[in-house]
User: Fold these one by one.
Assistant:
Number 1:
Amino acid sequence: MRKEYDFKEAKPAQDIPALAQLQAQTKPGKVRITMYVDVEVLQAFRERAEQEGKGYQTLMNEALAAAMRPEAAPVTEEKLRRILREEIHVA
C-alpha cells in the first residue's frame, strides 16, 4: 500500500452509478453522520446497550426520536410542581 493517495480527481459516490445504487440500498431513511458526545454519555449508552442486548447507536437513535415527541418526554420536577400547583389551586 502507498503511504499517501491522491484523491484530487475523485468523484463523489453519487456520481458513480454502481456506488450510488449501493448507497440507495442501505437502510432507507437512515443517514451516516459524525458527531461528538461526552465520554460519560457514550459510556452510559454502551453500558445500557449491553444490558438490553441492543446496539448503543440504536439506543441513541431511540433517545433522540423520543426527544422529538413532547408527549414522550419525562416528567421533570419543575413540570410536576407546576401541575400540582394547578390542581391544588382548582381544588
Number 2:
Amino acid sequence: MDKQNNKRPKHLKLLKIKMPVTAVVSILHRVSGIILFLSIPYIIWLFSLSVKSVYGYTEALTILNSGCGKLVNVLLLWAITHHFYAGLRFLILDLDIGITRESAIKVAWLVQVLVLITLVLLIYKVVL
C-alpha cells in the first residue's frame, strides 16, 4: 500500500476546500440555470394573474412589491445575469479562446465583477 494513500482524508469537509474561481463560476452557472428553470411556473403564474383583469394586475404588483417578492426578484435578477455572463464565458471557452490557466482565471473574475455591477444597477433600477 502506498504511503500517499494513507494521508488522504476519510471525510471531505466541503466548506474547507478552497475551490478556484473557475470552479465557483461553473458551479454557480449550474445553480443559476436550475433557479431559472424552477422559476418558470412562478413567472407564468404571475403573468397570467396580471393579464386576467385590473384586479389581477394590482395583485401581481402587490406580490412583486412585497418584501418576499423583492427578494425573489433579486434572486432571479442574479440568476439571469450570472447565467448570461457565465454562458458567454463558456461559449468563448468552446471557441478555444482563453483556455490557458491565467486567462481562464482572469475571465472568471471578470464574470464575477460584471455580475455584481449589473446586479447592482438592475436592483437600483428595477427593484428599488
Number 3:
Amino acid sequence: MQNKPLGAYENVEKSTLGGRDLEAHVLLRAANMMAAARDTWGQPGHDERLEEVLTHNQKVWSFFQAEITQPDNPLPDEIKQNVLALSVFVDKRIFEIMAYPEPGKLDILIEINRNLAAGLRGDQAV
C-alpha cells in the first residue's frame, strides 16, 4: 500500500512529465515493482504482490498496444510492428508466470521494460 506523501509526489511527478518521459517512468515503475516481487519471492503476501505487479505490467503494455494501433500514431510502421511483437511476447510471459510462477521468469520482463524506458529517454541500454 502506498503512503500518502509518496502518492502525492508521484501524482505531481506524473503531471510534470511529458510524452516519452512519462512512458519511460511508467515502464521503470513496473520494472521496479517486478524486481521487488522477484527479490521478495516466498515472503508473506508474495502471491498477492506477484498478481498485482503482473497485472500492472499487463496494463502498461495494453496501453502501448492501444496507442501503437491508433491510425494517427506517428511512429514508423517498422517500430510499430516491433513494439506489437514485443507486447505479444510480454503478454505470453505474463501468462506463463501466472500459470507456472518462478522468480527468474520475471528477469526478461524487467529487462525489456528497463531497456525500452532507456530508449525512450535516449539513454544507453541498461
Number 4:
Amino acid sequence: MPSGTRARRPKRTSLPWTTTFALAIKNVLRQKGRTASIVAAVVAGTAGLILSQGFIRDVFVQLAEAIVHSQSGHIQLAKGGYYTYGVHQPDKFLVSDPEGDKARIASLPEVEDVMARLGFSGLLSNGRADLAVLGEGIEPDKEAKLSSFMRIAEGRRLRSDDRYSALVGKGVADALRLHIGDRVVLMVTTSDGAMNTADLEIVGIFQTFSKDYDNRAVKMPLSVAQELINTNSANTLVISLKHTSDTQRIAALLRERTVWRDQEVRTWDQLNDFYPKTVEMYKKQFGGLRLIILLMVLLGVVNAVNSSVFERTAEFGTLRALGNKGRHILRLVMVESFIIGATGVTLGIGVGAAGAYLISKIGIPMPPPPNADLPYTAYIRFSWDAAWTAAAICLSATVLAAIIPAIRVARIQIAHALRQAI
C-alpha cells in the first residue's frame, strides 16, 4: 500500500424499508408458534373491548329509551319556574295557550307528536287507608303511543272514551291493596283554593323503569284532571320526536323561538338527572376495564415478544455482522410487531362483530336495575367507532410492548450475539 494511503473501511450495508417489510413478513410466518400466541392475545383484547363497549352502549340506549317512552318524552315545555316550584303549586304555572303551542310545535318535521299534561298532588283513599299521590291528567291515545316502555301489570291502558277512570302505579296499588274494578276517591285542592274530590274506577296498574315514580303516580284523562283542578289549561307540553338524536337540536330551536321565551324547555336527560350521573359512572368503570384489558394485552405481548426476540439473538447478531446498524434491527422488530398487531386487531374486529351479532340474537337476561322492578334483555351494540378505538388501543399496545426488547437486542454486542448460536 503506498505511503500516505489510508485503509478504507468496508461500506456498511443497511436494510431498506422494502427489504425490512419483506424480511419482517418472512420472520412472522416462520415463527408460527410465537406469532399465534401474540395474535391470540391481541384478538382477545380487541374483541373484549368491542363487546364490553357494545354492552355499555346498550345500557345507555335502553335506559334512555325507557326514560323517554315510559315517563318524560323527549322534550317538555312548561311555564318558567314550574320545574322548581310547580310540584306544590301546579295551578300557578299553567301554559297559557296549550292548543296553539301544540299546533306550532307539531309543525316541525322532526316532531312525532305533542301532548298536554296537567300535574297535581292529592290524597287517594280506598275507604280504609289514604295515600299521598302525584296525579297526572293525560291524553290517553297520544300517551299510549309514547309510553311503549310502560308495562301494564294488570288491566288495560286508559282510552279516549274513559271518563272517571284511572291508572295507578304498582307501588300505589300495593300500598292500598287495589285491584282492577276497585273504586277510589281522589281529593285535591283546586286553583281557587277549594277542596274537590272525584270518584274513580281503577282500570289498570302500570310499571315503569322507576320504582319511586310507580309508588306515587296516578294517571287519569286530562278532562277529568282539568275538572278537578278547575282549569282548562295544562302544566306541560310533552314532545315526542321521531329520533332521540334530534333532542338537543330541537330543544335549542324551541328556546330560540320568541313565542316561548317565558317558558322553560327541558330535555329528557335534564328532567332525569340520574341518567347523566349513571352514564358518567359507567364511563369511568369502562375506563378501568379498558385499562385492565390493555395491561393484559401488554403483558401477554411483552412475554411473547421477549421470548421471540432473545431466541433470535444469533440471527440479529448475524445481521449486525453483515453491517446493519442497531437501529435497523430495532426497526425490523418494530415492523414485525406492527404486522402481528395489525393482523390481530383485524381478526379481533371480525370476532367482536360476530360475537356482538350472535349475543344480540340470543340476548342477555338482566335483573332489574337499581330503583326498578322490571328486568330487561341486554344486547351488544356494535359500532365502528368502538371497533376503531379498540383496534387503535390494542395495536398501540402491541407495538409499545416490543420497544424495550427491541432496544435491548439492538444494543447487544455482535460477538456476544454470535456466541448464542454455538
